[in-house]
Each structure stands twice: as structure tokens, then as C-alpha cells.
Amino acid sequence: MEDEDRQKTLDLVKELVHRLLSHNPATPNNAARNPNPTDLNNSFRYAVRILSSRLTPSIAPDAAAIAESIKRRLATQGKSSQALSFADLYNKFASKTGAGSINNKWAVLYLLKIISEDRKVSQASHNFALHLPSLSLDDRELGGESRNFRRGEKGWEDGVLMVAKDPENLREIAFREFVNLAKEENDVSEEVLVRDVLYACQGIDGKYVKFDADLDGYVLPENFKVPRSTRTMVRKLCELGWLFRKVRGYITDSMDSFPTEDVGTVGQALCAALQDELSEYYKLLAVLEAQAMNPIPLVSGSATSLNYLSLRRLSVWFVEPMVKMRLMAVLVDTCKVLKGGAMAGSIHLHAQHGDPLVHEFMKSLLRRVCSPLFEMVRRWVLEGELEDIFSEFFIVSETKELESNVSQKGKESLWREGYRLHSMMLPSFISQSLAQSILRTGKSINFLRVCCDDRGWADAATEAAAAAGTSTRRGSLGYGETDALENLVAEAAKRIDKHLLDVMYSRYKFKEHCLAIKRYLLLGQGDFVQYLMDSIGEELSEPASTISSFKLAGFLESAIRSSNAQYDDRDILDRVRVNMMVQSTGDRGWDVFSLEYDASVPLNTVFTESVMAEYRRIFNFLWKLRRVEHALIGAWKTMKPNCITSNSFVKLQGAVKSQLLLTLRQCQVLWNEMNHFVANLQYYIMFEVLEVSWSKFSDEMEAAKDLDDLLAAHEKYLNSIVEKSLLGERSRPLYKSLFVLFDLILRYRGQVDRLYEGIFELQARNAVSLPSKDKRKSSKQTAKRPEPPGSWVGEGRKALTQRAGEFLQNMGKELGAIAKEYTSLLEVFLSELPVQQHINLKFLLFRLDFTEFYSRLHPAK
Prior knowledge:
Layout: H1 2-22, H2 37-52, H3 63-76, H4 80-95, H5 105-125, H6 139-142, H7 170-185, H8 190-200, E1 210-212, E2 217-219, H9 228-237, H10 239-257, H11 264-292, H12 311-317, H13 319-335, H14 340-351, H15 356-369, H16 371-383, E3 395-397, H17 408-412, H18 414-417, E4 419-421, H19 432-450, H20 457-468, H21 482-507, H22 510-520, H23 526-540, H24 549-561, H25 570-575, E5 576-580, H26 589-592, E6 593-597, H27 609-639, H28 654-703, H29 707-724, H30 732-766, H31 772-782, H32 797-832, H33 840-848, H34 853-857
Antiparallel strand pairs: 1-2, 3-4, 5-6
Helix pairs in contact: 1-2, 3-4, 3-5, 8-11, 9-12, 10-11, 10-13, 11-14, 11-15, 14-15, 16-19, 19-21, 20-21, 23-24, 27-28, 27-29, 27-30, 28-29, 28-32, 28-33, 30-31, 30-32
């Protein structure tokens, strides 16, 4: 079928050529009906070659515009009725579609217009040779045998009729003169310069325009005679070639050095985007080179095509490519020393431009450049994977081989030290808060996977992607989609952080462990602490080097079984252990004894070694306070069953008896002062410090939205206890004064024990001289008390009285010295409380001096 149509077409073309040659006035009359077969065949082949070519008119294929031009031309010629008829016919012609309609309607209209113009010209000149202007061939093509006209005949030259108002062809003469003048003024024709400029724009040296390395640019040598305006224009046009060399050199160097760390995936994406732009640039140059093959009118009078290329036309063609190439050259200069997120951020800053062309160009470039960066963000937020071979991402891993690192220390530092933000690689289009959210979300996934051995985060990530309207597939995020990125990060952070806290609270019982630390390390379990201190006190009074930690562990277990602590979870109780601190010369068991709580993964993320060291400091302080309280209670127990009013002392001398009563009263008064101080300090620490801080910490635990909030709440809780308990750096002088007071109270306890041991011995010696009834009563009280060497029991009454007086006098002096020192130290301690910055310490001062006794006793100077 196609062969038939082709044959019909060829037959019609041959018939048209035959008719045209038959009407050629140059053909003899006897050959009018039968043209020369050679001329007919040559003309037929030439016509077929023209019809088979892809040449198109240099006009836009717009049927409506051509129709409007024809209608306007008819109207201007006074043919209004024909213009209306043409408009009606065109509307019918344009509205016809479907089978049998013509697709290229503009081509038909253009053909009709050209035929009409040719007919008008032929009628005006009465020369029918214009019926076939494009089929006349020169002597070389037709062989010179069928040509019956000569080249130099007027009105017919190379198939083109020279039509002019002047019969002498003055226009042709002017053309020749202009050509001669141009040759005299220029050593290089404009066609050659255009070709050299096109070569230079491809980075290639032309015949005249070459690259000068010293001047770093393309130059036209001065020894060629060229007008200054032409030389300036060539230099401006060759700037595009200089920019092209810079961009191409950067691409070549980067791709040759890939995959080194200096280039990276973002740099490779930039090179790919620049290469695509250069490909479009190459296409433009190919079109321009095709037009440069056509001669330039005004220089060559034989030029017939409008698609020629001059330097001025080239400058117009180069306007947009010059803008893009300058932008690419600027980016190349900027990005030479940058990579990764820093490179993307720098390009983003150049995109903030008011010119729509520049803005769109940079935006399209950024879509390609930022693709690897956004893929890293997607994988980190939804999968917790950090694939950053070339250190381009704004999140940096500080832990090597986290998957294989199973050590306790490595997992403990995973959250706090495993990952961090690299501010130099943070692009300017990602805010600091968004970067922090991205960092925390990926850290949460890694924490769940490595430390908690949990896989529930995958479902949370999928739900987050669905809620944000994106997918978990590669390429779901890109530049310009900042809102989508923020929504994805917000949804992922909310779900993954919630899942992490659920795992910490439910599976690992974080709240229960915090409460256990409060009860055992902060001595909040009263019955347990009291039983432990009663049972272990005698053992801790021994030198530290002689104490066995295993024996102390037995006391700890006994205290747990004998108190309400036995009802706690066994896992929690097993974590409470005895810890003997580093010993020094002369240390007693009280000085080195401590309790510790074993926090395993993932609890050790919160209870790190430094945190547990702070808990040990607080325990040592509270343990010392409890020890002092326990010592005062023991002193009270010693003083309570005294026999001061017993009849055993009736027969003592008045001076000794008076001295005894004075000493006992002095001891009791001093005990009351010390007990008042210790009791109020104990109340302040246990209730206004520990309980208040715990209540606030519990509320903040409930309000925590992520692990960072939980860590911050615990750190605030611990710091609050340290500061309020006088353990902070600002309270160090006060802390030292307090411990001096504690040591003095313990010294007082030793003096009380010594005093009452002497009193009991005096009672036993005095019982010898009592009546039998009193002897029996006194013997019951002293039967169980051993008689140490050098005691007073076997001595005479006079010597007993003398030694008793001396003993009581010495004890009174020592107690007086302790009381004086205590008063002085307490005054110093109370004077330092008002100047402390923490407001809670002022409440402690109020409790200690609520009657203003000390204020009146020691008024401020």
C-alpha cells in the first residue's frame, strides 16, 4: 500500500515538473510540448531531493498567525469581501478534524500565500520563468547541454530573477563595493570569526582566536587587522569559552579523583548536574554551527537564507547560556573546597536571587545536588542507618563499629557520645532545631536496636511515614520539600520517642529503679537503714583493713530480710551491693563503707559512672548524718537509765556529788543542742530536699517526651539534691564546717561513753559500803559490767572520793571544751547560711534558729 502511494506521488511530481518545463520561456517552441528528457530527468531528481529534504521555512508553525496575515493583506488591498470569504473558509478548514483532514494546516496556508506572492510577481514582470525558480540548475549539474540560456543574461541568474526598480542593478553594484571595502578593512571575515568563536566556546583553539595561558583567556592576535568593535565583541563572546573551560575542568578533575573523600556523593551529584547542563549547551552549539554554515547577507550577495549567524546574532544567542555558565563558574569556584552539606548550603545561598531565570536554574541544580543528602536524612530518620562514607552528613558517628561493640562502656556512651551534630556540614536550609530533631530520632532508633534489643521502632517509622504523607522508599524526599521533611521528622520523632520511653518504663522499669536508688542509696527506707546501722555499727568501728566485705554483704542481706525491703522485686534487691571505697591510713569502717546500685544496659545510659559517683557522694553525706544521729540516740540511751538519784550516791561527799550533778547537767544540755541541730538538719535533708526533689522529678518523668527530656529531668533532680545538701561547689566551705560539727558530735559521744563508764564504776565501788539491801540492789545493776584494770572498785573510800572528784572535774572540763567549740563552730555555720545563693538553705536557717536563740546569743556585728 505504501509503495503504491509513493509511486503515485512520484508520478504527480513528474507531471508537475513536465508542465513547468513546458511553460519555460527559455525553452524553444518546438520543445514546448516535449521537453528534453535529460532536463526532465535532472529537474525531476532535483525536485524529489527538495521534497525529500527536512528543510522548513524560518517561520513559526502557527496557522492562526498566517491566516491573520493573509486576511490583513487582503483588507489593506481593499478586498474586504475576499477577506471575509477567506475568514469563513479558514474557520471551516480549521474546524475540520478526523479522517480526511489535514494535520499541517499552517503548511497549506503558507504554500497558498507563497503561490499568491509568486503569481503577483510574475504578473508584474510578465516573466514565466519564475514558475520554477528552484529547479534551474547550473552548467555543472545539467552538463551544459540542455541550457538554452546563458548565465550572464539579464533577469535570469542561477534561477533567481533580479527584480529592482533600477534597470542597471545598482543594488548588485553596491553589494560588490561593500564586499570590497570589507575585505580591505578586515584581514579576517566575519564568517571565520564566528566559526572561531564557536570553537572557543567549546574549549578549542580556532584558526585566529586562541587561548592565551598568560592572559588566561581567548584572544585575537593584534597582528590581524580587525575593527576595534569587532575585536571587543569577540572578546566578550569568548568569555563563554573561558567559563566553559573552568566548569569542564572542575568536572574532569572531580570525576578523575572520585571516589576520594574530597569529592563525595554530593560533589559527584553536582558534577552530574553540571554535565547535564553542558549537554544542553552542546546542543545549542550544534544548532549555531549549522547556522554558521550559511553565508552572511550584506557580505555575500548570493546569500538567500535568513538562518545565518553573525557576531551580533551570536551575542543574542549567548545571553542565556552566558548567565548559566557564569553561575556554574561561580559555583565551581565556591565548591572547590567544600563538600557534603556545606556544599549544598553554599549553593542554596546562591539560589536566593531575585532573577527568575537564576532562581529556577539554581533550584533545578539543587534538586540534583541535594538528592544524596536527603537520602541520608531519610535513612537516618526512618532506619537509623548512617551511610556517610565521605563524611558529608551533618551527623557524625563517634563510635566505631557500634553493631559489634557489646561492651558495657560502649553502650553506656552510645546516647550521650555516640553521635553528634557537625555544624560545618549543616545546610543553611535545615534549621538547628530541625537538625536536633533529626539527630535525636536516629539516635533513638540506634539506642533501641543496640541497647534495648528492640525492633518495634520499624513499625513506628512506617506509621510516621504514612502520617506525614511520604513513603519509606528511596527518593521520597528532595530539595524544596522542607515542609514534607519537617512533617516526616516530627511524626517519626513523636512515635519513635514514645516507643522508646514505653520500653524504658515498661520493659526495663526505669521508674522502679529510680525509686530503689532513692530508698537504698539515699536512705529513704527508714527501717532498713536503722536495722543496717544497728547491726553493722560495731563492725564498722574496727579498722578498715580488718573488715571483710563478704561479712558486710551478709549484714546487708540480713537488714533486707528484717525490713519491709524484703517485699521489693528480687531483681532490684540483687542490684544493691556493698562497696568498700579506697582506704587510707587510719580509716575506720565508717569511712570506707558505701552502698552501690548496679545499673545495667540500658539503664546505665541514665545512671552513668559519673552519675553513680554523685550518688555515692550523697550517700556518704547521708550516711555520716545518720551515723551522727545514731550516735546521739546511743548517747541518749546511755544517759537515760542513769542512777543519779539513786541512794548509792547519798553518802558521797557534797563536793563530789555537786560536781557529778553539774557534769551530768552539762552533758544533757549539750546533747539537747546537738540533737536539735541534727534533728532539724535531718528533717531538712529528708523532706525539704529529697522528697521535694523526688516529687518534681516524678512530674517531669511523666511529662518527658523523649530520652533527652528524661536525662535532663534526672540531671536536674540530681543537681537539686547536690546543691540543697551543701554538696555543691558554691557550698564547699559550708560543707566543711558541717563535717567538722559532725566529727565534734562523734567526739562528744565518746566522752559520754567514757563519763558513764566512770559513773558505773563509781556506783559499783560505792556499793561496797552500802547496807545489804542497797548492795543487792546495786549489785544487780553492776553484776554484768566487767572490771577493767586500774578500776576504782578495789580502792579505799578516800581514794575513791578523790579520784571520782578528779575524774568528774576532768570530764567537766572536756565537756566544756566540746561545748565551747561546738558553739563556735555552730556560730560559723549559721553565719554562712544567709550568704548562700540557694534559697532552700535560708529555710534551713529558719528551722535551726526559729526561736532566734542563736541570733540573740550572737548578734550580728
